[in-house]
Amino acid sequence: MGFRKKNKSPPVLSHEFVIQNHADMVSCLAMIILLGLMFEVTAKFAIMFITVQYNVTQVLDEKSEPVNLYQYGPKDVATVFFYLLIAVILHALIQEYILDKINRRLHLSKTKHSKFNESGQLAAFYLFSFIWGCSILTAEEFATNPTFLWEGYPHTSMVFQVKFFYICQIAYWLHALPELYFQKVRKEDIPRQLYYICLYVVHISGAYILNLHRLGLVLLVPHYLVELLFHASRLFYFSDENKQKGFTLWALLFVIARLLTLTLSVLTFGFGLPRTENHGFSLAEGNFNVLTIRMTCLAAICLTQAWMMWKFINFQLKKWREHSQNQASKKKTVSPKSKPHKRETTKGGAANGVVKSEDKMSPRARKAKAS
Predict the structure, then answer these.
(1) pLDDT tens digits for 165-190?
(2) Which of 87, 104, 286, 349 could make an S-S bridge to 154, C-beta 3.0–4.6 Å?
(3) pTM, entire model
């Protein structure tokens, strides 16, 4: 892990050396790009990495002032790469100065330690993205007019906040791929994390390239809220296993978010876009409003939601089984064990279940007494 002090340094360029010092290496690379701004020869290349490209000035009305909008293009790859480096650095800082300190106090097992780190990183990202997305949506007309999702398509122009939001989103989820190596993620956890990382990259990049950034932003905000609640609940659960109320609220909001996603997707691809004036396929104009692309996008969203619901149902069934087993084990330990009562009956027997002292004498003693 970067920023850590080790007594013994591993061999240079070995796997352990790269893992321990990857944040320092990435920081040096980011500093080199920033230093490029100081020289006129390299400044134009450094700007391509740091600032958002494809600025377009438009005049909406004759009386209004010009508005600076942005489009996308190939140079965005350089911008995504730079903010991918920033994401790696921030990841290491959160891990080193927040999560590792909490882990030392909790004394978690290796399995819980890995899940705690994953939830800690994702909770911080989801919280930041949710607040940022809400601030963007408050300036839009979706609250009063949901038809803005498809009206005026293709939406080739974006305000700065929207474009920078998508650049950072793509950069973050791409940075999660090398982090699987840097964080020494367990082999059994890699497939699960690869699934959702690739799904995020494909869906967010698809909304960005197909000029569906309005729909993508509206769908991401409630989804991030649900995921934030899940990972925050898991963090509280690792600190105290009795704190499980957050999972109940998460389960309710999860189902609502899936229904909301399906509803808005069907409205946009099934009813909204087919009724717009601009139909056809044109890369130059950024128009992808054809039946094949619409149905492909809708099918991808529906399949993803179905997969998420399947994972959700399996997760709930697993938790229910564990809860049932815990309840059964508690009942066995709490309930007292019934002990059989032994009664000794003799010929001169006890009355009302009480054995007299004379009845307790052995046959030889009674014979001696009688003689």
Answers:
(1) 999 999 999 999 999 999 988 899 99
(2) 286
(3) 0.84
